[in-house]
Write a structure and sequence with these properties.
- This is Apolipoprotein N-acyltransferase.
- This protein is α/β, with parallel strands linked by helices and about 300 residues long.
- It has a single domain, classed as Carbon-nitrogen hydrolase (Nitrilase/N-carbamoyl-D-aminoacid amidohydrolase), CATH 3.60.110.
- It contains 6 helices and 15 strands.
- The chain has helices spanning about 15-30, 75-85, 160-165, 195-210, 255-265, 290-295, and strands at about 1-10, 35-40, 70, 85-95, 100-110, 115-120, 140, 145-150, 170-175, 210-220, 220, 225, 230-235, 240-245, 250-255.
- Strands 1, 2, 3, 4, 5, 6, 7, 8, 9, 10, 13, 14 and 15 form a 13-stranded mixed β-sheet that branches. Strands 11-12 form a two-stranded antiparallel ribbon.
- Helix 1 (about 15-30) runs parallel beside helix 2 (about 75-85).
- The termini are far apart.
């Protein structure tokens, strides 16, 4: 059996606060026998304080941005120390080797290894003014299984999860700082339309690709953003095995990865029955004709 966990928690610019939350979550995970823990997007240093035309931008002020962290820097090393033998996915603002370029990134690590780093590919609502975009999706072998990473808005793009499933991912961890709607926000955030979309994407991507899906998310508030929590573990049949709903906490599920794959993939063959010969337009650089059709 493998024990999977996804966390919902609040992270800010205060690194000491972040490390305290990470320590509490990794300690709880160890106490509960967790093998792989997914922490939210921007768990080191917090996310942007707002999005859209009024969001943080490098041109406006670098003081409002998350601290830029090198993958070989002391911040990641401290998380590794807290992780110990626990495999952890964690979001942060990565500083590239040129000392200037920033990426909204996630690291997959334990106390002895950094198994991989993912740089967010799909950027929403002006996020590109603060971060450069990544350009690839990888799958990494870890003691907890073959794991792929994506961040927040990526979950709205089926291709992002599919390419990792085809690469042999057993588990995809989706790390988010997913807020409630900015207008006409529901009084109960669990009923908010953006909460609904967050949850539906998680179920669909797990079922589309017949993988275990871990959705970690921020909770509480930061700047103008109200996060919707709803960290969860979803199985390859699209069944939610555990969820935090709106609150902070940890969704934990014990799973038999190999047996579940044998069972779930014995009757539905979503990967085998693909038709790549008719998918050509999906990867055409010029999507204008398809955009025209969408508005016809």
């Amino acid at each position: 059996m493998t024990t999977l966990a996804a966390a919902s928690a609040n992270f800010t610019r205060e690194l000491d606060q972040n490390y305290a939350v990470i320590a509490a979550l990794t300690d709880e995970a160890r106490d509960r026998g967790v093998d792989f823990l997914a922490l939210p997007e921007a768990a080191i240093g917090g996310y942007l304080s707002s999005l859209g035309n009024h969001g943080d931008t490098v041109r406006a002020t670098t003081r409002s941005l998350p601290p830029a962290i090198r993958i070989d820097g002391p911040e990641i090393a401290r998380v590794q120390q807290l992780a110990g033998d626990l495999v952890v996915a964690i979001g942060f603002c990565e500083l590239a080797d040129d000392g200037e370029t920033r990426y909204n990134a996630a690291a997959l690590l334990d106390g002895g290894h950094v198994y991989g780093v993912y740089r967010k590919v799909h950027q929403p609502l002006g996020e590109g003014m603060s971060y450069s975009a990544g350009s690839r999706y990888d799958v990494h072998d870890t003691p907890a299984g073959r794991i792929g990473l994506q961040i927040c808005y990526d979950k709205a793009f089926p291709e992002a999860a599919r390419i990792m499933a085809l690469g042999g991912a057993q588990i995809i961890a989706s790390l988010s700082a997913w807020p409630a709607a900015r207008t006409a926000t529901a009084e109960n955030l669990q009923d908010d339309r953006w909460t609904y979309r967050f949850n539906q994407f998680d179920i669909a991507r797990a079922l589309d690709n017949q993988v275990f899906w871990l959705a970690a998310n921020q909770s509480g508030t930061f700047g103008s953003l109200r996060y919707v929590g709803n960290a969860k573990v979803v199985d390859p049949g699209g069944n939610i095995l555990a969820t935090t709903l709106l609150g902070s906490g940890m969704a934990v599920a014990d799973v038999d990865i190999d047996e579940t794959f044998r069972t779930m993939r014995a009757g539905m063959f979503h990967l085998r029955d693909r038709r790549p010969d008719v998918y050509g337009p999906l990867v055409e650089t010029d999507a204008t004709p398809w955009a025209d059709l969408a508005h016809a």
